[in-house]
Every structure is written in structure tokens, then in C-alpha cells.
Design brief:
The complex is a heterodimer. Chain A is an alpha/beta fold. Chain A folds into two domains: about 325 residues, Aldolase class I (TIM Barrel, Alpha-Beta Barrel), CATH 3.20.20.70; about 120 residues, Alpha-Beta Plaits, CATH 3.30.70.20. Chain A is built from 14 helices and 18 strands. In chain A, helix 1 packs parallel to helix 2, helix 3 crosses helix 5 and helix 8 crosses helix 10. The model of chain A has no long low-confidence stretch (mean pLDDT about 95). By secondary structure, chain B is α/β, with parallel strands linked by helices. Chain B has three domains: about 100 residues, Fumarate Reductase Iron-sulfur Protein, Chain B, domain 2, CATH 1.10.1060; about 170 residues, FAD/NAD(P)-binding domain (3-Layer(bba) Sandwich), CATH 3.50.50; about 120 residues, FAD/NAD(P)-binding domain (3-Layer(bba) Sandwich), CATH 3.50.50. In chain B, a hairpin with a 3-residue loop joins strand 9 and strand 10. Chain B is globular, with a radius of gyration of 23 Å. The chains are: A alpha/beta, B alpha/beta. At the A-B interface, helix 11 of A face helix 2 and helix 3 of B.
């Protein structure tokens, strides 16, 4: 049976699923409820300088009937009194001694940092997370992402914290920066015990077409917010990979950004995360999703023969290379398994209009199943991605696997195209129709001019 | 089996005849429209006689462009709302949905269509404008689906249109012949009013065209004449006792039901003769009107019924039973019907053959003839230009108007579409044909 126990820089929890510092961790009530439901840890909603919140705080990006594909907020750090939060931290720890309670913090001066670190330690927190990520409201006051975007400032504050901290310190990074590894390295150099990423991405979630006010609407005005939810996962995974692969970043990483299912969590762990933090999915579906997260990850580990999380942490990292190290001799083409095809022709129109004109329709209008024109197919995957039927279009390998040649190899061998007409240039060998053929094409009868 | 109590009030009638395809709420339409795959050159479009760009109108519902959605529908089909409700979508668009091939429920296209058109009809927002006046005038005979569709399209083309309708209300079978659980009178009439409001054709009600003199008057007053008169009354069976009290045509029964609702007279034991869709409707409706027993009697086996399988299923679910391979030979009773004498049949070389000595009487107090509508032969033969030679005849051997590809009859001034031409199909076929006929008229007038 898989063992989900987690240890991030000394912060121990029964499983890697932590609630991220956000509205679900606003109170001891919520965190107790979450621990009772099965969550392994919780990062308390950021404690720090006094703030005032606005009414109307969230906005959503829906995709058709799927709500909260993306989510943004303009809420600030906790607006509850510090003493109440400290008391509740103690109470939670007393009731759940084996669960991880991490205090997220955000203050300004060295003295304030020292005081608040001691306060949360005295309350019984297992760790500290420094909020250097918040991209709205706090950054204008020189905190949050304003710190995360300045590696030197970040390093200094980590050093202040480490001057007094006896418990592990996690540095939470903002993605609103071009190279995430710079603040990550600064966190390590400053003495941080771990990093967590990503915080939210600065965003305008949408505009109301009737009032011309972006969401969320605060008395006829809006402001940029922080973007999160399933849609940001690919950005988070890339930043996680960048840090996890970096030779100078050796401290553990808590992964954050769009985790909703055990699959998402497994992907974060495969790219090097030690724990994962979840917020939007809980704001959407409640704490109960932990049951799928835990049982799904356990089943996956059992199936793969992983006994502990360490057995597969970072296992995907060696498989992400620079583009120039990919094998140019690898060749796949699409194959339509016609017995599964339902004739929607989405693959046809996607390839025809959006890719390489490598799918043909039958001349018999009663036969709606398309055919791959293999010589035109560049193996881009698009058709297999748009196909609504599981395993109906698969990508089949066509090279024999014996040859391996990369752009890097070719560069080093002086075997790369120098001009557009160079016979070595890739596009020269790709078939494209003549432009005017587009106009001669038979259109479906309902495509009106 | 559903048990229906005889409705005694409008509310009870409405409950027994609750819509088969109820109007979708905004939420339901949003979720259902989200499922559409937006197929390329979608098979649902091909399956629609009017060729509505279904994936487009569904996408327009989903993106919050319901007005655009309704416009997409009406551009192809002027009876968009009626068709959304009454079309046999299982056999047409929804039957062609690719989801059927992957055991996923097909998109509810009919209900989505009704949703979009309902919105715009209620809003009264005009989506179309009549074309620039051509100075030409067209007479349209019949304000049914064919006549209304032709009128709208002719107005788009800039021709003036006067419609002559024999009955007191427009929309033909949509009001007088469709089962009440498919389309209400209000829905049917609101759509016509909506169309008339934006196109400004005139309709003269209770103005039947009765004969030669009327045709000649139209010929003098109009540049072309469109015939959309549909079919006639239910044909007789030609068996003894057919004139007894309690024997009525299924279509006439439906008409009474549409007009009188719960006040319609229905027998306790009803026999419905026929295997077509109208017979199935009459059977379902008799059940819903509280008849104690309803029996469908058909000469051949179930697989040979003209009705769509889902219509037969609905009749059965409503409580009807069926007798197959039986031919009615006599209606029994003195003044009022007391039963029908049948003889059993067997199939022999594709034909049916009576089994001697197999006669039996099925008791009943009402017989509904679902034996098809007659053609309006006598009337149509009074159109001038009738010649005996086959090629130039107005009607074919089965009493249908003969038309060319432009829906022009052999009297060049007359065009026709709908049941009178196709022998009786669906509202959607009438809408499709009439639209083309309007273009035929336009071409004719330009010559």
C-alpha cells in the first residue's frame, strides 16, 4: 500500500495535499474541517499588516458550461485580527498534532518580521511561508509580488526571517517575472528552507460587455487581480520544472497552480514537487475533493509500484530537454481507427484550416470518415487532440528508432540551413497547396458568403 | 402503461397533454448547447430538409447570441419554431447527430431550436425586412406552413403577398392537425403573427377558394398564384356502416381536440384504424382524453406501419393497444357504432390475403379513421390549363399537383408546394419546398 507521508524541509504531514494560503484557510474552523476531511496540511491565510478588503472580489473564466477554468481574485491577506489567528493556530495544532500548519506571513520592516515569526512559532506553527507573490493590492504597498520580483530584496527579507526562525521557512514565489529561477536562487541563498510556486498571475479576467467594467466590478470600477485555477497549471508546471532542474536550486519545492485531481498532483510530483497546494478546486467543490486526491494517488502509486512519494518525485525531469536536444529523426503520423470514428470531421477541418492539409474526405458524401494523407502529415497531433472519441486517432511511429540526430548535433556538425532556400531548410520539403486552390474548394452548402 | 383520467377542465387537459418537448430554460439550453461538437459539414444539416445551419445556431445560443441564433434558423426555415416542436427530429437532425455513433445522447436540436425562436418571438424583435418593392403581387392560397413560408420568402424578394385562408386561423395543420403535446395553438399562432409583423403580407380568413370563378379572379388580380392548400378531409374506407354515429376521421378528431380541448367528445372504447402517424396521434390523444381502451388496428404487421417507431411507442406508452394483420370489413351497430368487424390477414408474396372464416368483432363506441387524407382533386382540376395528356396535367395519378424543379405547375402562373405536392409529409418539407417555390416565382416574374 502506497505511503503518502510527506516531509518538506522538516515539515511533516500525513499526505502531500495542503491547502494553499487563501480563503479556504481563513479560519481555524475551515482548517479543522479540512483536516477532518483528510487534508494533510494547510498554509494559513497570510497574516501581516492590517488591511481592508473590498466587496466583490472574484471573477471567473468559463469554458462553455465548464465554470472556473480560470479564476481571479482581488482579495487581500487576512483581515482578521492577528491574535484571533494565533489562538486558532494553537487550537488546530492541539487537535491535529500530526498535520502541517504553516503560517503565511507578509509584513514590512525587519522588526515586524521578527515579531510575527516569533508569534506564529509560539502559536505552534510547523513552518512559515513568506508571501512574496500576491500580485494585487499588497504589491502597491511594496509587499507581495513587489518583493518576489526583486531577488535582492527577497534575499534580504529571507535573511531577516532566518535570523529568528526556528521552524522551516518556505519562500512563496510570484510567476509575474520572466525568470523564476532568479528569485528561487535568492531564496536559497538567503537561507530559505524551501520554495513554493506559483502564486497567482496578474490578470484581468474579463470585461462586462454592457457596463464596460472588467470583473470583478467594485462600484463601477475594477482592478487587476491574481489568476489561478486549472488554466494556469501548464505555467506552474513549467516554472516548477525550471526550478527543479536548476543545479543551484537544491531546496525542496511545494507545487501550486491548478491542482484539482490526483492526476494534477502526480504531474507536479513527477516534475519535482514535494507537496502540492490546492486552492481554487476547494473554492469550487469544497474540501471533499481530498477523497479523490488521496485514493487516486494511492492507486496510481500501487499500480506503478511506488511505495513512497520519493520513489517518483522528479521522475519526469530527465525527460524535459532543450528543444535543440530533441531527436529530429523521430517521426509519427496520425492514424484514424475508422471503427471508432463517428464522422464529426473535426479532425478534417482542424487539419485543413489549422494545420497541414493532411486529411482528406471521401468523395462519397455518405461516407463521413476522413482519411490521413500520410505524405502531408507532419505528426503535429492536432487531429488526435480535437477528436472527441477516445483512442480514435492515434499517433503512430514511422521511423525505425535507430537514428538519433538533434538540432544541437547538426549545429555542431555545421549541418544546419543558412538561408531560406537552403535544401536543408525544413519547410522546403513540406507540401502546401497553391493559394488559389482555397477558392476552388467545394464549400458546405450552408457556408454563406 | 400510463393511466389518464378524462380531463374536465383546461388545467386537467393541459396536464394530460403536457408538452413532449418542453421549452428549455436558459440554463438547460446553455448546458445542452455546450455539448455540440460543431461538426464540419454536419450531418444534422444534411438531414434537415430546410438545411438549417444547426451547429452555428447552437453555437450562437452558447455564446449568448440568441437573436443571431434565431436568425440563422429563420434564414433557412420560416416555420422555425413550429418545426423545433413538431419535426420528427429523431428521424431527421437528431437521428443524424454523430453522438449516436458513440452511444452518447444526441443533441436535443429540436428543443434548442424552439428555445432560440421562442426568445425572439417573445421579444417581438424584427430580424428581417421585406425586400425592395418589385410592384408584383402574388396570391397565396392557404395560410399553412407552405403558404406562410412562401409568403415570407416572397416578401423578402420584394413581392406583395395576399393570402387566402379557408379557415379562421392561420398555420394549417400546426393549429388544426398537430397533437397538442407537440405544439400549442398559442405557439403556432404567435410565430405566424411574428412573421406577419415583420413581412406585412395580408391574410384573409374564412376565404376559401372554391372553384373556377375564384381561380380566374386571382389570375386577373395577381402576377402569380401559389397553392399551399395541403390535403383534404380524411378519405373514406368504403366499408358498410361507415356512416354510423361515432365514426370520424382521425384528423377531424384532432381538429376538434385542438379547438375544444377538454370539451371534445371521446368514446369509452376507441378503435383507431390505420398505421400512420395521424393514427398514432389519434390513439395517444384518445388515451389522454380518458378513453378506457384504445386499440390501433392495422392491416399489416408492425414493421410495415407508416408511422415513425417513436410515435407508435408514444401511443403504447399512453395506453393504446394494437391489433395487427386485421382488415376492417364492417362497422357494426344500428344508429351508433357498437363495434368493428375485422378479418385476419396473412402476408403472401408481399400482399395481404384474408384468412377465410377468421372474422371477429371488436366492440367499441368510437372509430377514428386514420386512413389518410384525401386529395383536393375536384378543386384543383378547375385550374385552367388542365389537359388530358399526361405531361401537361395539373395533377398526377395520385391526385398530387405536378410541379417542375421550380415548383411551377403545368399552368405557368401557378406554383405549389407542401402536402398538395408531396402527398403529405412534414411541416419542414412544406417549409423547404415553399421557399424554393418562392424563388421559382421570382424567376418566373423576372422573365
Amino acid at each position: 500500500m502506497a505511503d503518502l507521508r510527506t516531509n518538506l524541509a522538516g515539515i511533516k504531514s500525513p499526505n502531500p495535499f495542503w491547502l494553499a494560503s487563501a480563503p479556504p484557510t481563513n479560519s481555524g474552523y475551515q482548517i479543522m474541517k479540512a483536516f477532518d476531511a483528510g487534508w494533510g496540511g494547510a498554509v494559513w491565510k497570510t497574516l501581516g499588516v492590517p488591511v481592508v478588503n473590498v466587496s466583490s472580489r472574484y471573477g471567473t473564466l468559463n469554458y462553455r458550461d465548464n465554470r472556473m477554468m480560470g479564476f481571479n481574485n482581488i482579495e487581500l491577506i487576512t483581515d482578521r485580527p492577528l491574535k484571533d489567528n494565533l489562538r486558532e493556530i494553537s487550537e488546530v495544532k492541539k487537535r491535529f498534532p500530526d498535520h502541517a500548519v504553516i503560517a503565511s506571513l507578509m509584513v514590512e520592516t525587519r522588526e515586524e518580521w521578527h515579531n510575527i515569526v516569533r508569534d506564529v512559532e509560539n502559536a505552534g506553527a510547523d513552518g512559515i511561508e513568506l508571501n512574496f507573490g500576491c500580485p494585487h493590492g499588497m504589491c502597491e504597498r511594496g509587499m507581495g509580488s513587489a518583493v518576489g520580483q526583486e531577488p535582492k530584496v527577497l534575499q534580504t527579507i529571507v535573511e531577516w526571517v532566518k535570523e529568528v526562525a526556528k521552524i522551516p521557512v518556505i519562500v512563496k514565489l510570484t510567476p509575474n517575472i520572466s525568470d523564476i529561477t532568479r528569485p528561487a536562487r535568492a531564496a536559497q541563498v538567503g537561507g530559505g528552507d524551501a520554495i513554493s510556486l506559483i502564486n497567482t498571475i496578474q490578470s484581468v479576467i474579463g470585461v462586462d460587455l454592457d457596463t464596460f467594467v472588467p470583473f470583478p466590478n467594485v462600484d463601477g470600477k475594477s482592478t487587476n487581480g491574481g489568476y489561478c485555477g486549472p488554466a494556469v497549471k501548464p505555467i506552474a508546471l513549467n516554472m516548477l520544472k525550471n526550478c527543479a532542474q536548476h543545479p543551484d536550486i537544491t531546496i525542496p519545492i511545494s507545487g501550486i497552480g491548478g491542482v484539482e485531481t490526483w492526476r494534477d498532483a502526480a504531474e507536479f510530483i513527477l516534475l519535482g514537487a514535494t507537496s502540492v497546494q490546492v486552492c481554487t478546486a476547494v473554492m469550487h467543490f469544497g474540501f471533499g475533493i481530498i477523497r479523490d486526491l488521496k485514493t487516486g494517488l494511492e492507486r496510481y502509486m500501487d499500480e506503478k509500484g511506488f511505495e513512497t512519494l520519493d520513489d517518483f518525485r522528479g521522475k519526469a525531469l530527465p525527460n524535459i530537454l532543450h528543444w535543440e536536444d530533441l531527436n529530429l529523426k523521430y517521426k509519427v503520423v496520425a492514424e484514424i481507427h475508422k471503427e471508432k470514428c463517428i464522422g464529426c470531421q473535426l479532425c478534417y477541418t482542424a487539419c485543413e484550416d489549422g494545420a497541414h492539409q493532411a486529411i482528406a474526405l471521401s468523395s462519397d458524401p455518405t461516407d463521413r470518415k476522413p482519411t490521413i494523407i500520410e505524405e502531408n502529415c507532419v505528426g503535429c497531433n492536432l487531429c488526435s487532440i480535437v477528436c472527441p472519441v477516445e483512442d480514435c486517432i492515434t499517433m503512430e511511429r514511422r521511423d525505425d528508432g535507430k537514428e538519433h540526430l538533434t538540432w544541437g548535433d547538426r549545429t555542431r556538425a555545421g549541418d544546419i540551413p543558412k538561408t531560406f532556400d537552403d535544401p536543408l531548410a525544413g519547410g522546403l520539403h513540406h507540401w502546401v497547396p497553391e493559394p488559389a486552390e482555397a477558392l476552388a474548394k467545394v464549400k458546405p452548402r450552408h457556408y454563406r458568403g | 402503461m400510463a393511466e389518464y383520467k378524462k380531463p374536465t377542465s383546461e388545467a386537467e387537459f393541459a396536464a394530460n397533454f403536457s408538452p413532449k418537448k418542453p421549452l428549455m430554460s436558459d440554463t438547460e439550453a446553455y448546458y445542452e448547447s455546450s455539448r455540440c461538437l460543431y461538426c464540419y459539414d454536419a450531418p444534422c444539416i444534411t438531414a434537415c430538409p430546410t438545411g438549417i445551419d444547426i451547429p452555428l445556431f447552437i453555437r450562437q445560443i452558447n455564446s449568448g447570441n440568441k437573436e443571431g441564433s434565431a436568425k440563422t434558423i429563420y434564414e433557412s426555415n420560416w416555420m422555425g419554431h413550429a418545426c423545433g416542436n413538431v419535426c420528427p427530429t429523431e428521424e431527421l437532425c437528431e437521428g443524424a447527430c454523430v453522438y449516436n455513433h458513440s452511444d452518447v445522447k444526441p443533441i436535443e436540436i429540436g428543443r434548442l431550436q424552439a428555445h432560440a425562436t421562442d426568445k425572439v418571438i417573445r421579444s417581438k424583435k424584427k430580424l428581417f425586412r421585406a425586400g425592395k418593392d418589385t410592384g408584383k403581387k402574388i396570391a397565396v392560397i392557404g395560410a399553412g406552413p407552405a403558404g406562410i413560408s412562401a409568403a415570407c420568402e416572397l416578401r423578402m424578394l420584394g413581392h406583395a403577398v395576399d393570402i387566402f385562408e379557408a379557415k379562421a386561423k392561420p398555420s394549417g395543420l400546426c393549429v388544426y392537425g398537430v397533437a397538442p403535446y407537440k405544439l400549442t395553438n398559442e405557439e403556432a399562432l404567435d410565430e405566424i403573427a411574428y412573421l406577419q409583423d415583420q413581412f406585412g403580407f395580408t391574410v384573409q380568413y374564412n376565404k376559401p377558394i372554391n372553384g373556377r370563378a375564384d381561380f380566374e379572379k386571382l389570375e386577373k388580380g395577381y402576377d402569380a398564384i401559389f397553392i399551399g392548400i395541403g390535403l383534404g378531409a380524411t378519405s373514406s374506407l368504403g366499408i358498410p356502416g361507415e356512416d354510423k354515429q361515432g365514426v370520424i376521421g382521425a384528423l377531424e378528431f384532432v381538429e376538434e381536440l385542438r379547438m375544444k380541448h377538454h370539451k371534445t367528445t371521446v368514446g369509452k372504447k376507441v378503435i383507431v384504424l390505420g398505421g400512420g402517424n395521424t393514427a398514432m396521434d389519434a390513439a395517444s390523444e384518445s388515451c389522454r382524453m380518458g378513453a378506457e381502451s384504445v386499440t390501433i388496428a392495422y392491416r399489416r404487421g408492425p414493421e410495415e406501419m407508416g408511422a415513425y417507431p417513436f410515435e407508435f411507442d408514444l401511443a403504447k406508452k399512453s395506453g393504446a393497444k394494437a391489433l395487427f394483420n386485421v382488415t376492417p370489413i364492417e362497422v357494426m351497430g344500428s344508429k351508433e357504432v357498437t363495434g368493428v368487424k375485422f378479418i385476419r390477414n396473412k402476408a403472401a408474396y408481399g400482399k395481404i390475403e384474408a384468412i377465410p372464416g377468421s372474422e371477429f368483432v371488436e366492440a367499441c363506441d368510437m372509430v377514428l379513421l386514420g386512413t389518410g387524407q384525401g386529395k383536393q382533386v375536384e378543386l384543383l382540376e378547375q385550374i385552367s390549363g388542365v389537359k388530358l395528356e399526361h405531361k401537361s396535367r395539373i395533377l398526377d395519378d395520385r391526385g398530387r399537383l405536378v410541379v417542375n424543379e421550380q415548383y411551377q405547375t403545368n399552368n405557368p402562373k401557378y406554383f405549389a408546394a407542401g402536402d398538395a405536392v408531396n402527398g403529405g409529409v412534414e411541416v419542414v418539407n412544406a417549409a423547404a419546398e415553399a421557399k424554393q417555390a418562392a424563388h421559382g416565382i421570382d424567376q418566373y416574374l423576372k422573365k
